[in-house]
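Chain A, query sequence.
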Amino acid sequence: MHVERDIAYTPNLRLDIYHAQNAPVVVYVHGGGWTHGDKATDGARRLAPLAEYGVTVVSVDYTLAPAAVFPQQLDELRAAVAWVRANLPGTEKLGIWGASAGAYLGSLLALSTEDVQAVVHWFGQADLVASAARSDLEARLLPFHFEADLLGTSAEQAQDWSLLPRISPKAPPFLIAHGDRDRIVPPTQAYALHHALGQAGVRSRLELVAGAGHEDAQFDAPEMLATTAAWLRTVLRPGR
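Chain A, predicted structure.
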């Protein structure tokens, strides 16, 4: 495995490539509440190890809120996917993998276009209305307003930009993983996404990680990364 860093895929945005030999390719979208993080955030603990399990990972930057005007981030991911297809071999079938806020963006791309053929959705939002709804006590304990940061003046359109209404039988297969003790994005989000995909006849696998919170270290354990890589290799196999 070797890494290429800081490759421009637009004039202002960069990506890193964690190369695995003769391997399928997945585009990785980092988390951070849409307001922080970058392509290198998860490199050492997550992306390089996944490449060692036989999947090439392309980790991309995207413009963060509030500088980005949604859905600018979605357009940027489309540009990243187009760059990958034009510049890397073996990308006739391509996966997208995201964590938290990145899982939402990657899944939104997959449900809005036919650009990718597999989705790995780690502890991300599916219903923006539900994930933003908090009691007064919850708002004091968890004073986040990620969804409003993402949508800005379009916050009233949260339902329109949720994943669930966009699911159709044309959606690609999903691998969903979520911690059962997640207090940032509750596991009900994963259940709702998995159920809606199944109702539409889309292949979906849900991994509920016992005792895990949001961005828990258990997600970067060897068994989780090996399972994720094996699923991607199977789904992205040519001719499947």
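The first strand starts at residue 2 and ends at 8. The mean pLDDT is 91.
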